[in-house]
C-alpha cells in the first residue's frame, strides 16, 4: 500500500465518518426524535457495556475498515463487472451494502433484532446516513485515486 493510498483511506474515512456523525447526532434527532446510536448496536453484538469501547470500535470501522472495503472490494468489482457506472452510483451501492450489513447482518443475524429493525423511521435515517457516508468516501477516493475507466 502506498502512502497516497493510506492517506486516501484515512482522509476518506475521517471525512465520511464526520459526515455520518453530523447526520446521526445532529440531524437525525429532528426526524426520528433521537440520534442514531451505532455504538449501542456494537454493544449488543459483542455483549459488553463499555460505551467508550463501542464508540471506538465503530470509529475504527468507519475510518479504516469501511474505506478499505470500498477501495479494495466495491470499486474493483464495479470496475470489473459494471465499468459504465459512474462513481456516485458505485458509492451509493456501497452505502446500501453497509446499511444492509449493519441492520441485517449485525443487528438481525448476530444481535437478534428484527431484520432492518422492522423498517421503523430509524431504519431509513440509518440508510440516509450510510448513503451520505459512502458518497463522501467515494468522492474522496475518486478525487485522490481516480478509477481507470
Automatic annotation (TrEMBL):
| Keywords recorded for this protein, A-Z | Membrane, Transmembrane, Transmembrane helix
Q: Which domain of life is it from?
A: Bacteria
Bilayer-crossing residues are 51-73, 85-107, 119-141
Q: What is this protein called?
A: DUF1440 domain-containing protein
Q: Which species? A: Stappia taiwanensis
Amino acid at each position: 500500500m502506498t502512502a497516497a493510498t493510506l492517506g486516501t483511506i484515512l482522509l476518506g474515512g475521517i471525512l465520511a465518518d464526520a459526515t455520518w456523525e453530523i447526520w446521526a447526532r445532529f440531524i437525525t434527532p429532528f426526524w426520528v426524535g433521537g440520534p442514531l446510536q451505532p455504538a449501542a448496536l456494537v454493544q449488543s453484538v459483542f455483549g459488553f457495556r463499555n460505551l467508550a469501547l463501542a464508540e471506538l470500535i465503530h470509529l475504527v470501522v468507519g475510518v479504516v475498515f469501511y474505506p478499505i472495503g470500498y477501495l479494495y472490494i466495491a470499486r474493483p468489482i464495479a470496475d470489473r463487472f459494471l465499468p459504465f457506472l459512474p462513481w456516485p452510483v458505485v458509492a451509493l451501492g456501497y452505502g446500501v451494502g453497509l446499511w444492509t450489513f449493519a441492520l441485517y447482518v449485525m443487528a438481525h443475524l448476530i444481535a437478534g433484532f428484527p431484520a432492518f429493525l422492522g423498517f421503523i423511521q430509524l431504519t431509513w435515517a440509518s440508510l440516509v446516513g450510510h448513503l451520505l457516508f459512502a458518497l463522501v468516501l467515494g468522492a474522496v477516493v475518486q478525487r485522490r485515486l481516480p478509477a481507470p475507466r
